What does this fold into?
Amino acid sequence: MRLLNLLLLLLSVLGAAPFAPPPPLLRLPLSSIAPPPRTSPPTPPASPASASAPAASTSSSAPASTSTPTASASSAAPASSAAPASHAPSPIPVHPTPLDVRIHGVWYDLSGWLSKHPAGAHWLEWYGGRDATEVMDGFHSEKGRKMYTRLPRSFPPSRVEGLEASLGPDTPTQLAFRKLRADLYAAGWWQRDMRHEAKLLAIWGAVGLSAVFFAHSPLPHAGKLSAFLLSLFFTQSGWLGHDYVHGVDKFSDRMRYLATTCGGLAVTWWSTKHNKHHALTNEIGVDEDIATDPFLYTWAPSPENDSPLRKIQHLIFFVPFSFLFALWRVDTFKVALDAVKQNRPGARKELRYLCLHYAAVLAAFPLSVFLPAVLLSGLMSALIVTPTHQSEEMFEGYQSDWVTAQFLSTRNAVTTNPFSEWIWGGMQYQLEHHLFPSMPRSKYPALRNILIDFAADNDVPGGYRESGEFAIQKMNWDLYRRVARADPVPGAPSSRGDGQQGAISDFDLSPANALAK
It folds into this structure.
């Protein structure tokens, strides 16, 4: 009973009970293993009127349910007129600090506001000279979106003209997506289904209580069963918390610290790292989710960034996968402590929740159960989060059309049974989540057909991409094997800043360079 009360204490801290809740360069095709080529920023057009949008697609937009890209393996960079423009905004005369961002056609200077942003700077630092409409809309509530007009405008007019000429107009795909988002919002797609939430929380709570029971049971192999159940509990704590951290409704606000208290993952760390991944998906040098070297490489590296482990990565991939959750936990504490030092709002409360998590878990479970559970949860989480992006296009430069970039860089997994549907935690609908991160995950299955039609109607390159849950794992493993067998490529971009991030830091490619230095 004492252990049962410990688990229920975690839930009571969150302000809700689980059983009765109250009324968020392209990556080379798979057949190619050379790194993406470097691209130079284009020369800015003479005037905004001469700027052109990315070329319209002429390829089929039918869903690619089981197919993979088929470019020649000798091709270092297959050209695609259907892809969105991949470039860094051209140099523009700037003051020492401005961070100019376009939102719904209006340019705002966010340099002074950046430090006051409640969620921190993170991805915003890399959006100088870019259109941030979809990302800002995706992360913010209706109340937050109404506050855009209070942000300081970019000035003088000649500067705005230069910014507009450099970036070019919104594409038809972007405009169509904004209409789709407005229509879905008006139709109530962001209203949370509380029955569905109750079911998910009840299953999650039952798994956690069962793990506690078997941890202290005299039955044969009870400890192993407890470790397995605890790993499921940790994994589902992450997926539930992921939904609530993204959420913009009142219930999500109440459940915001579920992943912190029950999964050991701080909200500050998650939002900093994960929101950056959403805003800069598969952008080399910035998206930390694809910076998995030196343990796992997804393209052939340059010799100075190579590792002997690469040659056997397809044989040992499960080892770094298993340590994923442990590394997340370590990073969580680093970020949480830094947040306290920076005096960020809620940082001390978050650190207390982390301490409560470890106090409760270590009181309820012996290390012989806890440590294997962390490793197994890491393996499960990595098998879910890595294949939906790593096998798709990657970008070394800025993507002017964020919507098309999400379609190009994301592949969904088609689950085959109720257990898989549950354990994937909504991550099988990766594209739905990337395009609408604050929408409750219960809406994603119904959203699938809408996005298939959207891709077809707007000639999105490659259409809506999805593969079976086992086929997508095989695609990812094949990628690891091909890269393992490849020779190093001199000049290949580094996943940690020799690409876009390095360009921003070292060259005047963006108004963000002053902040990045």
Notes: Residues 222-246 form the longest helix (25 residues).
